[in-house]
Design a protein that fits this description.
Elements lengths: L7 H33 L7 E2 L2 E2 L2 H19 L5 H13 L7 H11 L2 H4 L15 H7 L9 H9 L1
Antiparallel strand pairs: 1-2
Keywords: Membrane, Transmembrane, Transmembrane helix
Length: about 160
């Protein structure tokens, strides 16, 4: 698999997120099978929670779509679009209350710089967008007017 090409500190993050996505895909495959059983009449009871009845065709289509989305996210190549696709699927999993703590943890891992780098996403420092005069402040070079000797000369004149 492609995650063996990743440096060791980030590899465990890839493995965790991959297993998380595969577990979700399998969960939704099972729910798709439940929907198919309801459609065929093998269940003998309708899909219902208290007074709310689910349309089995709609339920099966949604569960199959989610299984497909999570399955694809678990097997994407190392491309920038693939990182973004997986991040969006992980964000989608934030809506599932059952696995919310794991979803937050997986999304936190996926947003790390060492995870983004193999996908070709350029990581920029916090001051790249600053103009050059402000960038000097972040690199230790004082801006004009910020040096005490210059301040003393300004006050003397």
């Amino acid at each position: 698999m492609w995650f063996w090409k990743i440096d060791r500190p980030a590899r465990s993050g890839y493995i965790f997120v991959g297993l998380y996505l595969i577990a979700h895909a399998l969960l939704f495959v099972g729910l798709t099978a439940l929907g198919l059983a309801a459609i065929s009449g093998a269940l003998g009871v309708p899909l219902a929670i208290s007074q709310v009845t689910f349309n089995p065709y709609y339920f099966t289509a949604v569960m199959f779509g989610l299984a497909l989305a999570f399955g694809i996210a678990a097997a994407v190549p190392l491309k920038p679009w693939a990182w973004q696709y997986t991040a969006s699927v992980l964000a989608l999993s934030l809506g599932l209350i059952l696995t919310l703590p794991l979803a937050i943890f997986a999304l936190g891992i996926w947003l790390r710089d060492e995870i983004k780098r193999p996908f070709g996403i350029l990581i920029q420092g916090p001051d790249v967008a600053l103009p050059p005069e402000d960038r000097r402040l972040h690199h230790g070079d004082p801006a004009p007017g910020m040096v005490p000797e210059q301040d003393a000369q300004i006050l003397d004149s």
